[in-house]
Design goal:
TRAPP_component, TRAPPC6/Trs33, Trafficking protein particle complex subunit 6B, NO_sig/Golgi_transp_ligand-bd
Length: 176
């Protein structure tokens, strides 16, 4: 029996988790909220690693594990492969998803991001808040990647950047 979760339910859950941690639990402590969201993703990635690697042989190196994430794991999670994988062959990998589904329904007003207050300084705007909310949504998948690799014995740091909506690049830096 195959168990699946509705994509819309997962989208709504992620949105609610980010909203709760950022606005209700830690409204003035964005770093703490980000760490908590990433920790939830870490637990999910750790458990998914056990499920998806249970019946396959152990990975020989980091590159093999990253390729597994790009092809098989991403396909299971998002029904598509990673669009681009780059590496410097020294422990840094960049995984680019040109249509990251958890950002696909988001948008920001580009004019709102560039608004200035009367004295010329940047003021908090709806666009800035939307950009911040989008970045907060990326801590969860970063945690998933870090938890997945950690369960395989690969210690790493994972960060994400929004290139242009909904394109997202995940940078994985393997720790020696």
């Amino acid at each position: 029996m195959v168990r699946e979760v509705s994509e819309s339910c997962l989208d709504n859950l992620l949105t609610e988790v980010v909203s709760c941690y950022c606005n209700r639990f830690y409204p003035n402590k964005h770093d703490l909220a980000a760490r908590r969201i990433e920790a939830i993703g870490y637990q999910v990635g750790h458990q998914l690693s056990e499920r998806y690697t249970m019946e396959r042989p152990r990975f020989n190196d980091h590159l093999e594990a990253i390729k597994f994430i790009c092809k098989d794991f991403w396909l299971e999670l998002f029904k598509k492969h990673i669009d681009n994988l780059r590496t410097n062959h020294r422990g840094t990998f960049v995984l680019q998803d040109n249509k990251f589904c958890w950002l696909a329904h988001m948008s920001i007003d580009p004019l709102a991001d560039s608004s200035k207050s009367a004295d010329g300084s940047a003021s908090p705007t709806a666009g800035n808040k939307a950009t911040h909310a989008m970045k907060m949504h990326l801590y969860f998948p970063c945690g998933i990647l870090r938890g997945f690799l950690s369960n395989l014995g690969i210690l790493c740091a994972v960060s994400a950047d929004i290139l242009t909506l909904p394109t997202c690049a995940f940078t994985i830096r393997i720790k020696a």
